[in-house]
Amino acid sequence: MADKKSNFGLGVMLGTIIGGLTAFFLSPKSGPENREMAKAKIAALKKTLEEHKVPEKLQEIYGEVTDEGKKAFLIAKKELEKKLSQLEESFANMDKEKYLKLVDEAMKKVKEQTKETAERINRLRAYFADRFN
After folding, report:
1. Tens digit of each residue's pLDDT (9 = 90 or more) over 82-116
2. What distance in Å separates the CA atoms of residue 42 and residue 80, rounded to the nearest whole number?
3. What is the Cα–Cα distance from 52 to 69, expressed in whole angstroms?
4. 54-62 and 118-130 are packed helices; what angle lies between their axes, rounded to 10 degrees?
5. How far apart (Å, rounded) are the C-alpha atoms in residues 15 and 13?
6. What is the residue extent of each domain of the chain?
7. pLDDT in tens, 16-27
């Protein structure tokens, strides 16, 4: 049940933002209009990440709140925020494959800096990967 809540809760918010980015790529608008729209969507995604209530999100992802889980979540969130900032510079090339690469890089940091199990890191990866959809 926690996985369903996870997919629904933040997924709705982030999915809306990412959906907007998809519309950007399919839009008949001019280049400057598309660039402005993409910048706004990436900024909105970053804002959404900043507004996370960590204990609630940990409960959704893992079904429990632990110090190690909190550390893993915050590392992944920080890495994604950093990568999204980098994407602002090259947002026109954003697609699912590139986003998943960012998620994998964030999970590598989580693995290096926490004692989380592979299963919990995979669950965290799935949570962030699903946000693209």
Report:
1. 877 777 766 656 677 878 888 899 999 999 999 99
2. 11
3. 14
4. 110
5. 5
6. 2-130
7. 666 665 665 555
Comparing 61 with 48, the larger pLDDT belongs to 61
Identify the three-state secondary structure at position 107: helix
End-to-end CA, the chain: 19
Distance separating alpha carbons of residues 61 and 100, to the nearest angstrom: 18
Tokens linked to 125: 């990866």
Note whether 81 and 28 are within 8 A (CB): no
DSSP states of 80-99: HHHHHHHHHHSGGG--HHHH
Summary mean pLDDT of the chain = 76
